Amino acid sequence: WSRYKRSDPAPMVIDISPYAGKILFEDRSSTFRLYGRNTLYAFRADEGGNLEHLYWGKSIPPQDDLRYLSFSNVQLSFDPGPLTYFEDITAIQDLVSEQLDHENLLREWDTARKQNVGTCMFGEASGVINDVEEIAGTLQSSSLLDEEAVARARRENAAWRLMKMQELRSSRADGEEELREVSDSDGEFNIQEVPAPNYPIKSPHLGPMGSFTSPHLGPLHPSLAKAGAFGEGFLPLNAYPAAEEFGLGPQATEEAAPPVRSRRGSFTGHEDVEWEGTLPQVGRNTKLLEFADLGTGDYRPPSFCVVYEDGSTICPLTYKGHEIHKGKLPMKFARGKLPELRGGEDECNSLVVQMEDRLTGLEFDLVYTVYKDLDAMTRRVIVHNPKEKKSNGNNNKPRTPTRLDKLMSATVDFHTMSGLNLITLSGSWANERHQRVQSLVQGRFVSESLRGTSSHQHNPFCAVTATPEELFETHGDVWAFSLVYSGNFIMEAEVTETGRTRINAGINPSTFKWHLPPGDSFESPECVLVYSDSGLESMSHTFHALYKKYQIPQRWANTVPPILLNTWEAMYFDVNHAKVLELAKVAATCGVEMIVLDDGWFGEREDATSSLGDWDEDRRKFPDGLYALVQDINALGLKFGIWVEPEMVNVKSKLYRKYPTWCLNQHGRNSRCEGRNQLVLDFTREEVCQYVIAKLNALLSAS
Binning pLDDT at 50, 70 and 90, where does residue 182 land? Predict the structure, then answer.
C-alpha cells in the first residue's frame, strides 16, 4: 500500500486513463478490476472460493493492493465463523470409537497399507507402486480412483495418525522427545522438527478430496504449523483449513505450486500465502460479498434462492474460473426476449465469472460489462442446471430438476457509511417518478412492483449517497442501479448492525418460481450500475448517454421524434374520417408532422366498455377503411400513427364471446378482477400470440 518513498516530496501521479474499459485479473491475489472512464469496480476470490466485494468508486491504480480493505471485516459476537467442511468418517469410525491400542493400530495400518500399495488402486491401472512421490503423482493425475480406494487409503491414513498421536502423548509424558517450536513473530513461521520416529515412513497421508501429502514433500502450510506440535509423519485430523478441503488452499509440495488460474478452470488457492494469512478469517455475514447465498452464515437478503428436488435449499457457490471477452457479451438464453445494452470491441469489455455448487453441480455465471467512455457497467446472471453432475467415481450421475425462487441481477455490499440515503422514484398514474429520499438505518427498505409491470407507482431504479439532500444534486458520491426490465421488480436495501449496506436489484421473488430441468438455463435481466463523484446531475447524464448510445435501437438512435397531434383530447371516442381530416388540415399549418388516431376507431367502440380485442376498423366511422384516411393524411405532408392495446380484451367483444378462456384467470374459479372494464389476454398461449400478430399484421399492411 505504501508504494512511495518517504523521501519523495510529493506522491507520484499515475495516469489511469489507459485502463478505461479494461478488465484486469491479478493472479497473485485473485483480484478482478473493472475500469470505467474514471471508475474502478473490484472484487476477489477469497481463500474459501467466495467472491468478496472490495471497492466501487473513483479509479485507483492497479498497483494498489485492495486486499487491505478486508481488514475492515470485524466479526461480532454470535456471527458465524468461516465455513468449514468435514469428511465422512464411516470408513474409520471403528478405529476412532474402539480406542484401539498401539499394537492393534499398527496392525490395521499395515493391513490397509498392503491393500493400497501391494494391489491396484486405480481401476484399470496395474502394477505395484512403492514410491511415495509416485503414489501421490499417480493419484493426483488419475481419473480412475474409485470410492473404495479412497476409503482404504483414508483408513490407512487414520490408523497411522492415531498411532502417532499415541506415541506423541507417551513421549510428552516421559519427556523423551523435544517438541516442535512454532513462532509467528513478524508474520513468519520458524519450525524446528523433532527427531523422526523409529518406524520407517512409508505411508503417504491422504489429504482431503483424495489428494496425497507426505512428510517428505516439504514444509507444512502455516495453518498446519500453528495447529500444534506434531512429529514428522503426522498431520492432525482437523488441521486442514476449509480452502484446502475443497482444493482451494496451497498444496504441500516440494516447491510451492502456482495456483491454477485459467479462463475456465479450477481455483486452487492463492500464490500470496503469506499475505492471505494476515487477513481476518471471518464468516460470510461479516464480509462484503459479490453474490450471496442463503443458509450458510449470511443473514442478509440473499442474491438467489434455489430449491432442490429433495427440498434442500443450501447452495454455497465457489469460484470455478473466468473468461474475459472483448466487447459486449450478448445475452445467450434471453436474447430477443429481454432488452439489453450493446457495445463494440473498442467500446467495452465483458467478464464472465463461473461459480458452482460443488455438491449438486448447479452453475452460476456472473456476467459483467464495463464501458470505456462512461462510468457505467452492466451485470446479469445465468444459471445452468447441467444434464449430468460429476461424481467421485468413474461415472457421471443424472441431474435432478431444480427450482429458482429468487435471482437478483446485481448485489453490491457497501462499507460502513454514516448518514446514508436511499433515493427512489415513485408516484402514480400521470404523476410518475417523484424523487423520494429515505434515510437508511438498521433494517430493510424495499421499493418494488407486483403489478406485472414496473408501474407508474415505482420505477426500477435506486441510488445511494452519503451526501446531505441539500447538496447531492451536484456534489458527493452517488452509486446508482437501474434494472432494464419492465416486469415485477424489487430494489431492496438492508443495513446491518455494523452500518454496512447491501443493495439487491432484480426480478421480484414474491411471484417468481422458475423450474430448471436438467440441461436448462435461465438468464436474468440486466442491471446498469453507474457511479458519480459529483452528485445526481452527473449520474443522470451518464444514464442518458449510456441508454442513448448503447440501448436505443440503432434504427432510432439519432432520429428526432416528429411533432405529433393525438386525436384523444380533441375527440375522445367520437372519431371519423371527416373529423380527423379536418383536424389534420389545421395541424399542418402549425408545424405538426404527424397525426395519431387514438381510441374509438375499431369494433363498435363508443365508450370504454366494449370492443377491445376486435381490431377491425369501424366501417360506420371509416366507410372507405383506414387506408383512405391514411392516404388523405399523407397528402397533406403528414405522417400517420395509430393507437392499439393488443394485450387487453373487453368482456363486451366478439373475441371474448368466442374465446372466453383466452384471458388470464385461475382455472376452475369463477371469480376474477376487471380493471377499467378490461381483462388481460394470456400471452403464454400460442393461439393468443398468433391471433394478435395476425390482426396487427393485417391492420398495418392494409393501411
Answer: very low
**Per residue in 108-133, is it b (16+ CB within 10 Å) or e — as a string?**
bbeebbebbbeeebbeeeeeebeebe
Which of 376, 323, 370 has the alpha carbon at shortest distance from 532?
376
**E-state strands within 534-574:** 564-566
Q: How confident is the model at residue 82 (pLDDT cuts 50, 70, 90)?
A: confident
Contact 479, 417 (CB under 8 A): no
Compute the distance between CA of residue 286 and CA of residue 79 in angstroms, rounded to an integer.
Answer: 7
Residue 596 grid coordinates:
395519431
Q: Are 180 and 126 within 8 A, CB to CB?
A: no
Question: Which value, in Å, is the radius of gyration of the alpha carbons in the chain?
Answer: 33
Cα–Cα distance for residue pair 360/362, rounded to 1 Å: 6
Please write the tens of the pLDDT for every residue from 452-470.
Answer: 999 999 999 999 999 999 9
Helix intervals (H) in 6-117: 93-97, 102-117
Taking alpha carbons only, the member of 457, 435, 439 closest to residue 448 is: 457
Q: What are phi and psi of 6, to 5 degrees?
A: -65, -25
Per-residue b or e along 548-575, where b marks 16 or more CB atoms closer than 10 Å to that residue's CB: ebbbeeeeeeeeeeeeebebeeebeeeb
More reliable by pLDDT, 112 or 619: 619
- Burial class of residue 143, CB neighbours in 10 A (0-12, 13-18, 19+): exposed
pTM of the model: 0.75
d(CA 416, CA 74): 12
Least confident piece of the model among 30-44, 162-176, 440-454, 524-538: 162-176
**Biggest alpha carbon–alpha carbon distance for the chain:** 115
CA distance 603 to 179: 96
> Cα 130–135–140 angle (5° rounding)?
170
H or E element, residue 98? none
Strand partners, 335: 338
CA 390, CA 359: separation in Å to the nearest integer? 9
Encode pLDDT of 363-398 as tens digits.
999 999 999 999 999 999 999 999 876 655 444 556
3-state secondary structure of 656: helix
End-to-end CA distance of the chain: 69
pLDDT of amino acid 269: 62
pLDDT at residue 258 tops 60: no
* Phi/psi-derived region of residue 455, left when phi > 0, alpha when psi is between -120 and 50, beta in every other case: left
Task: Convert the pLDDT of each residue in 573-606 to its tens digit.
Answer: 999 999 999 999 999 999 999 999 999 999 999 9
The CA distances from residue 68 to 23, 55, 275, in Å, are 20, 11, 10
Tell me, what amino acid is at 225?
Answer: A
Exposure string over 689-698, b if 16+ CB within 10 A, otherwise e: eebbeebeee
- Given a cut of 70, whether residue 491 has pLDDT beyond it is yes
* Paired strand residues for 410: 505
Mean pLDDT value across the chain: 80
Burial 219-255 (b: 16+ CB within 10 A, else e): ebbbbbbebebbbebbbeeebbbbbbbbbbbbbbeee
